[in-house]
Amino acid sequence: METESEPYVRLATLRGLHQVVADLNTARSLADTLQTVADGIVTGLGYELSAVNLVRPDGDLVVAAVAGSAGAEALMAGRVGSRVSWERRLAMADQWGSLRFIPYTEGWVLDNDDVPQWHTAGPAPRFPDEWHPMDRLFAPMYTAGTAGGELLGVISVDKPRNGRRPGAWGREALQMYAFQAAIAISNARLRANMQRALVRLEREQQALRASEESFRQAFEYAPSGMAIAEMGGDQHGRLHRTNDALCRLLGRSASQMRRYSFSDLVHPEDIGTLLRTSAEGGRAELRLARRDGTYVWVSLRNSVVADAADGPRFLLTHVEDIEERKRHELQLAHRASHDSLTGLPNSAELRARLSSRLCGRAPGSEPHAAAVAAPYGCLDGFAEVEGVEGPAGPVPYGQEGSYAHGFGSEGGPDHAPDCGPDYAPDEFGCGTHDHAYPGHVHAIAPPEDGPDDGTKGLAVLFCDLDGFKAINDRFGHHTGDAVLIEVARRLSNGVREGDTVARLGGDEFVVLADGLTQADAEDLAVRLRSAILPPIRVDGRAVRVGASFGIGWAGCGMSADEVLHSADQRMYVEKRSRAKAGRRAG
């Protein structure tokens, strides 16, 4: 190229330069583009050797491509020169436009730096512009095409074929080529980044599809119920999707389930539990309605699935059938609070129900509000202190129905009342209070020594069987157990639905009946005694037992043990006062 006189340039030379520039944009990868840049220096610009030094992410420059010499390629390819050494070279070089030239007379100071090079010693030039083997010529490449951009790399060239340092035309051609090479390398990098991004995106999409398929299979074929529900808005809780296990559990098809939310299916008593669980996430145990109208106990666990931008999106709900476990728990709770022989509440349950009705402050020690009927518990389960009132006035014993419920079967240690901050369990698991808690209806005992003034209270009837020991000794425990079972049945049939009949132990029973006057309690004792007297047939044999009843009264300020002891003492008084002839046994 340099044999041609300036400014005359042959058309063939321009065509060759145009071809190598065009080739820059045909490479398919970054590595191909870098090698094309190095090859173009050799084939189109008249140099025997060229190397492309590319800036790495850490700032150092690596020899990314070499052309013109297999030996130079083996020596230099892949080696790294520090950014500091390169900046030193570019700073000390003579500026030929955007090119940098270091003559052999100054380059000796660079012989021992860490920049890869192939230069060898040689004789002094024979004429002023002769190329020396130690001359160095660099063409920096910038991202913006000019020195104002970020350094992209440096093209190193050596051994011009005409043996001369490049003139004006040669320098201009090398500058133009470096400019086009920078564009080609930037484009190749962009394509490579896009290809990597596309590959990464495809892999992420494949992973997402695989994850979605895994979730779908885990959701659909899970052995326990699964549901996806709307979260927030007017459709909060609406079921979008349910799996087969949940549909089978509730007896509804998937299309039918989409008409409901969990609040439509939950037992009315469990709606508060469901709302707390939906708001907070976590776990709850509640009852859901089946298609046949029955309810099944389930363990419900919510997971809030959120979007990083939009916040909570929906609830993923796991529904596990715990009906069998609940049944066992209820059986265990019943066994713990009920007599195994008769099925009646046991001593602990009796004390728990009685203590739940009492507070630690006796009536009269402070002003009391008018008594109002309340369900069982601290506020629950007992009629008015002064008498059970129906819509038309006082209700006689035995006709109270729902007006006088005090000791339903739902009570017990597992149904401890919510009695306020001063509540503390006693040795029986029962509660005591230093004062009456808000809303408490005081239990007031009717006067026991004076005439019956019509005051109604909580009667405690202590029953002890007469002649039972003789039956047990004569006919054995099997007959004795049968007698106890039958007595328990007759006592239970002789009281109101809301009253309690408990077995205290042995042949002792206790009846709790609220809303009774003294006359009502005495009448109840007579009727229960009469119900026990008829013969009891066991294995074809008729046996009889009698019963002695002591009537005590529960009042606030008393403990459960004090109430039972009082009734027990009155029972023994009644037993001693009755003639032995009145006791029938055997």
What is the strand content?
15-25%
Q: Give the % helix.
A: 25-40%
Our Rg estimate from Cα atoms comes to 51 Å
What gap, in angstroms, lies between the N and C termini?
140 Å
User: CATH class of the largest domain, anyone?
Assistant: Alpha Beta
**Could you give the count of β-strands?**
24
The number of helices is 16
Compute the number of structural domains.
3
How would you characterize the largest beta sheet? 7 strands, antiparallel
The CATH architecture of the largest domain is 2-Layer Sandwich
Question: Which class best fits the helix and strand makeup?
Answer: alpha+beta
Describe this structure in words.
Residues 211-293 form the PAS domain. Keywords: Coiled coil. This is Diguanylate cyclase. Residues 187-214 form a coiled coil. Residues 282-334 form the PAC domain. The structure is a single chain. By secondary structure, the protein is α+β, with helices and mostly antiparallel strands. The protein folds into 3 domains: 7-193, Beta-Lactamase (2-Layer Sandwich), CATH 3.30.450; 222-327, Beta-Lactamase (2-Layer Sandwich), CATH 3.30.450; 457-583, Alpha-Beta Plaits (2-Layer Sandwich). Helices cover 36% and strands 23% of the residues. It has 16 helices and 24 strands. It has helices at residues 11-24, 30-44, 70-76, 83-92, 104-107, 168-220, 244-250, 254-257, 262-265, 271-280, 323-337, 347-356, 468-475, 477-493, 518-532, 560-577; strands at 47-55, 61-67, 80-81, 94-96, 99-102, 136-142, 151-160, 225-230, 239-242, 282-289, 295-307, 311-321, 374-375, 381-382, 389-390, 393-394, 424-425, 431-432, 457-466, 500-505, 508-516, 536-538, 541-543, 546-554. The chain has a 7-stranded antiparallel beta sheet. A hairpin with a 2-residue loop joins strand 4 (94-96) and strand 5 (99-102). Helix 1 packs antiparallel against helix 2 (30-44) and helix 2 (30-44) runs antiparallel to helix 6. The longest helix is centred in the first third of the chain and has 53 residues, at 168-220. The chain is rod-shaped, with a radius of gyration of 51 Å. Mean pLDDT is 81; it is low at 367-436.
